[in-house]
């Protein structure tokens, strides 16, 4: 994460204030009226301190970005930005965080405290994508100036293709075939450790209790329903990828063992979160 | 009170303070209309929420401004003031959105700017500070309202605005001191209050003195180094001609400034309030006057040692006066003598009656003066400010029938009686006493301290004699708090109102003097020739600093760049678009050992650069060792010509 330089923009109220200060300053010098001098001095002082407080308001802030587990192209994605005020005594007021899609406000952040802000964004393309820059700014204290800086991220994130809703039956004709086995009495194959997020239907409770972690029973064929998604390298690739993304998620939800076949890669049908992620990653990175 | 209403309340309060600061400039009718409309608009915002459309408000504003133009006024200032009030009131009539509130705050600021032209008093300073705090708080909440939920930050924002106001004031003091000032200003005097008070004029009657003595306002303040052991006489105008109860100053011969010999002088700094007269006051007898603020005013001294301006004192004046305890000149010419012996023919005979009974031919002027004073201080003469208006000459009435009067009756009677006895005498108008304020080491002299006394020619010099009975002096009831407030007022005038180019220059030269090291001796610098040694020695610090600069710069290079420069030195072309691992890959075919070393280095560095590891001393040391190792390896191999990939 890289912080950019401070940028100061003057608002309309600020322009009016600056012009008024100049006029009053000139009037004070011309007339030698000390009370006008006082008014002009107060205005100059307000201007200077307003800039200084807005600077103090924005320094010593630590930003951490948290990305959602799955990001799909052309879909609203919520970024979580954790802001920590590292200042010893000074709070931060009215922090604005914006990107090209949205703007969020953090009204108050006491010293040495942390807060989270949600900001939504849209990734236009699939594959490894740069996280778009965000702009941290504040009108504090008097709205005469807006001071802020850019926050750019070096990390990249994997963006899956945009899921395109499609009719299940038509897909079978269009994209491949379904190889479905009715669930019967398959032969017991062995035991294995549960993967994170895996469907816990076949838990071997005895082994789980003994080892203190989820152990699943594995059967020959691993499940009753299998589906192989085939990507034929035809035209309209992005739409195909979108539909396959949708279908992959749909079949995994319906507890199918899902596989993927592209002209270059073959992933045999399997169940579980790991397989789903692998398929989505393959789709995301296909021909990028 | 809801926090979101605070900017509106602050806008109302700011307007109210602005209106109060201009209270003296607005007529009662306007004031009543303003108060009524403001109350109605506030109630409207609270309860009714009835708002006129934009067009209606604009039409109303235009018609009211036209009305303000065509109703009788005292000048452009009043018209401008009316327009400002109209615009503010129209704004209050509209629904108060953020933009409207911003405009109201700006209009309130304009009201204060207008007040700064007409007011000079300390009260304006307090009003301005209150306005500043209120406006800054309002603006902070207005900004918060625009961007966030202000209920959460109500308290911290209050604290912030309070501290912010405090710092704004502190910085404003610095700006006030440092802002450029010009000794030449057009519109000079525009900013001063034209409302002058009553006071001694060139012609004065007995009733006028009575009026002055009833006025409790401040005449002037005199800063002295310490309290005087006597009650001071503040000498002002010298009256020479008496006619039908009025004294006039006819003798206006000016003297050029010259150095009067005086054993000791009293230095005073006087802040004279504006009044309807030309005379400047100082402790008797002033021999030198220096204007301080405004610096460029023409002051002249008359032969009778009264100091005058060419026109009325319509502005507050600060000046320094140097006074001599005794009369500094010792001559009187026949023309002057004739003037100071004048007695109106219609009263001369009656006055002779008194003088005949009082003096003897062999009495000296001093004895005669004392005798007449003694006569006037005895029964039936009595000091009183309540005397009925006389039909004839007031002094004759005082001497022969009423026997009651105030200082001017006593002084006039003594002057005329002395003149009748053949002694040149004159009436002096000024002030007597004052309140000593030990906080600021100054005398506060009020109008009610106005007094007249007599100066007579004793054959050698002029001497003062005061025939008014001593019990006329009433002690002022002045509380400690009042003294404190008056001290603040004095400082306000001295440091704020009268701060000008000359004072600024003096302040800066004083600061320069303080911060410049004091050398009480003259330093003789050794004469030397610019030899090569000296040039070399003088270059040493420059060379050292340059060396450290480049060393620092070199150290600033990232380890990967350092590796790149080493490899480049030995002929390897390492493109910046590639990383350490790519370089290692290219070298692998030629020199697997070197490639392994580069790979090791790059991986170690990448763990810090892109991973979660930290660049601690241990890792730094390890990377440096690796770099050295690579360098030595390349050196030993002597691959000067290197490889190109």
UniProtKB/TrEMBL annotation, chain A:
**What species is given as this protein's source?**
Desulfofervidus auxilii
Keywords, alphabetical: Membrane, Transmembrane, Transmembrane helix
Transmembrane intervals: 12-29, 35-59
Protein name, per record: DUF58 domain-containing protein
TrEMBL record, chain B:
Which part of the chain is the Transglutaminase-like domain?
Answer: 399-469
Which SUPFAM superfamilies does this chain map to? Cysteine proteinases (SSF54001)
Q: Which residues form a coiled coil?
A: none
Q: Which InterPro entries match?
A: Bact_TGase-like, Papain-like_cys_pep_sf, TgpA_N, Transglutaminase-like
The residues that cross the membrane are 5-22, 28-43, 50-70, 76-94, 101-118, 124-144, 156-177, 534-551
RNA-binding: present as a keyword of the record?
no
UniProt-listed Pfam families: TgpA_N, Transglut_core
Alphabetized Gene3D superfamilies for the sequence:
3.10.620.30
Q: What is this protein called?
A: DUF3488 domain-containing protein
Species annotation: Desulfofervidus auxilii
